[in-house]
Sequence to fold (183 residues):
Amino acid sequence: MSTMLERNAGLDSVPSECVPFYLLTERQREVLQYRADGLSSCEIASVMGISYRTVEKHIHGISLIAIGDVYSISENYGYANQQRITTIGLIRDGVYYGYLSHDLSDTVISPLSEREVEIVDLLLDTGRTNPEMAGVLSISTRTVDAHMRSIHDKFDTRNCYQLAARAAYLKLHDRWPGKKNGS
Fold:
């Protein structure tokens, strides 16, 4: 990683929340964009003409760059969940800061219930899995699963990464279908 830092010597002028994007290779940014578009690792491999294993190595590298930075969480959820939260955090911030494209200007999103807003916020803020969210919200995993299906239907998303990108876009452009702050 020190060679990456040396290649990016101009990082002093970059806001700290954007540093991980400057450290990503072109291939890693491409993988992250496809992940934000909702593609699975197998689909990304097919589109990019690389192996599934190579895609997973890029995702692992993306996570290693962000771990210990702004996306690191204090609680120990294990590596798999750390990778999930770092990827969600990078996608969310990538859309917000313009490093990832995600245009929903012509898309109509159905309103979310209060519980759905809670679940999306919990996913985006902590990257927790459905069983973990169930524990935090004191509801069953099946209930969280049902809410997630409804959220994915309303957002027309395939996975949590695409959901993170769409939610970030909608919040950035003041089109969030949840309750407004203070209302």
